[in-house]
Amino acid sequence: RCNTSLVQHGMKVVGCARNVEQIEKLAAECVSSGFSGTLIPYKCDLSVEDDMLSMFSWIKVQHHGVDVCINNAGLALPEPLLSGKTSGWKTIMDVNVIALSVCAREAYQSMKERKVDDGHIININNICGHRVVNNADAHFYTASKYAVTALTDGLRQELREAKTHIHATCISPGLVETEFASRRFSENPEIAVATYKSVKCLQVADIANAVVYVLSAPPHVQIGDIEITPVEQSM
Questions:
Q1: DSSP string of 204-215?
Q2: Which of 65, 72, 93, 117 is the most exposed place for a label (fewest CB within 10 A)?
Q3: Helices 139-161/100-113 angle, 10° precision
Q4: What is the CATH number of domain 74-228?
Q5: Which of 42, 108, 141, 146 is an active site residue?
Q6: Pfam families from the entry (predicted)?
Q7: What mean pLDDT is predicted for residues 189-198?
Q8: Which of 45, 4, 59 has the alpha carbon at shortest distance from 28?
Q9: Cβ-count burial of 103 within 10 angstroms (0-12 exposed, 13-18 middle, 19+ buried)?
Q10: How much is the pLDDT for 197?
Q11: Is residue 40 within 8 Å of residue 66, measured between CB atoms?
Q12: Tens digits of per-residue pLDDT, 135-154?
């Protein structure tokens, strides 16, 4: 829904996902709603670097380049530190850390090539990227989100050293009612239902509003980190 909020504000958005059918549905909704921007679906597997590089090449040819990059993909697998599978850990890192870094790098190179000095890279993190929850199944996932916190801070430092005014922001939500829990607990759907009933969750629109707020800030304002949690959620 962040895609549609940006389109509503007049932006041309390339929505990238493996499940491109969902993006196509949102694109149709944008057209029927008469939004001033455009949502363009693009199928991309963020665990495959060649897919990501092809995506940025396609964006360059079709739409000149990237001015704003929002890294929203995230993956959680129940792989504890004492008994988790190495393959699961690698999958988490490939999506949550490596893909995010590749997209940030390619977005920056696109901006640099076109002399875009006011672009923005936004990393959608998680509140557990700032504190460790007492849940063994989530500890490796939490480590990947701590990495996102560090990477965003490092990105800001490198952007300053490069003498650019490109912004880098980290948005860290708490519990948001999305498909995330349903996918994570696909074998036990009742757990996902219970998760979203445990508190009054954040809605996708809450995160989309935060993204719009970040992008609406004046050029001289650097919004580094935003933490958003449900009032009822305890960490």
A1: HHHHHHHHHHHH
A2: 117
A3: 20
A4: 3.40.50.720
A5: 141
A6: adh_short
A7: 68
A8: 4
A9: buried
A10: 76
A11: no
A12: 999 999 999 999 999 999 99
